[in-house]
Design brief:
Blueprint: E1 12-16, H1 21-32, E2 36-41, H2 44-56, E3 61-65, H3 73-83, E4 90-93, H4 108-136, E5 139-144, H5 157-177, E6 182-187, E7 192-193, H6 204-209, E8 214-215, H7 216-229, E9 233-234, H8 238-249, H9 252-261
Parallel strand pairs: 1-2, 1-4, 2-3, 4-5, 5-6, 6-9, 7-8
């Protein structure tokens, strides 16, 4: 896997969700290849720790603590970047979170935060920084989606649908920007060993050892390499690709049958006489 070294043409990378998981690993890899970094997260203390680590590796780092689920998040990020007079050459929209449960049972505030974080803010960041990349005739955009973008299952209605949007948006943006020399890639990982999962509920380390989950570093390397090669979509890992194919090929009646018997979702009441 090849990661391009920073140079006079491509030298500044903005990474959202950069204080943990895939985003942090991407920031580390980019720092090791000489990039100036703009790292963004809503967790100020953890972001400061991540920024200090990256500076310890010799990188120039601008840390911006912003809750990207705020309605004005994109405006705040853009204002901070412009105040620092930075030209973003690489935009990595990675920030996200997960919750499980039926859509009608979702907390409205939590659902709104997910849609803002997964749909609105990354779209507006792509619009702003993509426009500037187009004017310069160069740049890279990496949008982190999920294999759930190919088939959303009961219990992840909000998550899967928002990731489907990102996949679709990345495809359209790629077609629009490619003629101008700007490359757009959609990274669609499967289950990844990050803080997204509660280890008391999901055996993360065991899943990683048996290949069911990939490490955040492996996903980050695959995503950055695909981006620099100009690939449209990256689904990292053989197991992940097999799971995606299986999900796509599963007939909807099978999914509906499994939902009716799923112990992790509410059981509908039996009708009288049954």
């Amino acid at each position: 896997m090849t990661i391009r070294r920073a140079d006079a043409q491509i030298g500044v990378a903005l990474v959202t969700g950069a204080c943990s998981g895939i985003g942090r690993e991407m920031a580390r890899l980019l720092a090791a290849h000489g990039y100036t970094l703009v790292v963004i997260s809503d967790r100020a203390a953890e972001l400061a720790t991540a920024a200090a680590e990256l500076r310890g590796r010799g990188a120039q780092v601008h840390a911006i603590a912003v809750d990207l689920a705020r309605p004005d998040a994109a405006e705040l990020v853009i204002a901070e970047v412009e105040a620092r007079r930075l030209a973003i050459d690489i935009l990595i929209n990675n920030a996200g979170f997960f919750f499980f449960g039926e859509a009608v049972d979702a907390d409205p505030a939590r659902a709104q935060a997910m849609l803002q974080l997964h749909v609105v803010t990354p779209s507006l960041l792509c619009t702003h920084f993509g426009r500037r990349m187009r004017a310069r005739g160069r740049g890279y955009v990496l949008i982190v989606s999920s294999i759930s973008a190919w088939r959303s299952f009961p219990g992840i209605g909000y998550y899967g649908s928002s990731k489907s949007y990102l996949r679709s948006f990345a495809a359209a943006l790629r077609s629009e920007l490619w003629p101008y020399g700007v490359k757009v890639t959609c990274l669609a990982p499967g289950a990844t060993a990050t803080g997204l999962y509660d280890p008391s509920v999901v055996p993360v380390e065991a899943a990683r050892r048996f290949g069911v989950m990939m490490s955040a570093e492996a996903v980050a390397r695959a995503g950055l390499s695909a981006m620099f090669r100009g690939e449209a979509v990256c689904v990292p890992g053989l197991v992940t690709r097999a799971m995606t194919l299986a999900a796509v090929l599963t007939p909807q009646p099978v999914i509906d049958w499994a939902r009716r018997r799923a112990p992790w979702l509410p059981r509908p009441p039996k009708k009288p006489g049954r």
